[in-house]
Design goal:
alpha+beta, Endonuclease, Chain A, 2 domains
Length: about 160
């Protein structure tokens, strides 16, 4: 396991925003650096985001039919939104909620480590990550949508 300082150095070398946020707490000067480098939808990932939106997996396309146009409790979701260097499958900005579908490419120890690092990065910014296997979209869509709703802050507060 890496120390916090090692993570800061590693992320800083990669020009990630998470260490800048952590370091900004220690130094007000770095707040200016964060303002210059956007966190959401970086221009260098635009082509990747477009490609992923145009080549959705069948499971992603099916989930999108449930999430688009505010159909799920009136929440607006975006497809293939980038945060830092990561492109999220679905993102609800008002809830700071990321919904990820995991297929074959997410099995194995290396993929699990990558997903854990990615989730830790997102959680640094208060973004909750909810993961589902692709098969859940087909087998239990109602349970999946209920679980997404359970992660809505306002949904939990209102009952």
């Amino acid at each position: 396991m890496r120390s916090v300082e090692e993570c800061k150095q590693r992320w800083f070398r990669r020009r990630e925003c998470a260490p800048l946020l952590l370091l900004a707490i220690e130094s007000d000067e770095l707040v200016q650096v964060m303002k210059k480098r956007p966190l959401y939808n970086r221009s260098e990932l635009k082509a990747t985001r477009r490609k992923l939106r145009n080549a959705m997996t069948p499971a992603e396309a099916r989930l999108w039919t449930y999430l688009q146009k505010g159909q799920l409790a009136g929440r607006k979701f975006r497809r293939q939104q980038s945060v830092g260097r990561y492109v999220l499958d679905f993102y609800c900005a008002s809830e700071k909620l990321c919904v990820e579908l995991d297929g074959e490419s997410h099995s194995g120890p290396m993929a699990a480590a990558y997903d854990a690092e990615r989730s830790a990065f997102l959680e640094t910014f208060g973004i909750r990550v909810v993961r589902f296997e692709n098969q859940v979209v087909w087998d239990m869509p109602e349970a999946m949508l209920d679980r997404i709703k359970e992660n809505f802050r306002k949904w939990r507060e209102d009952g």
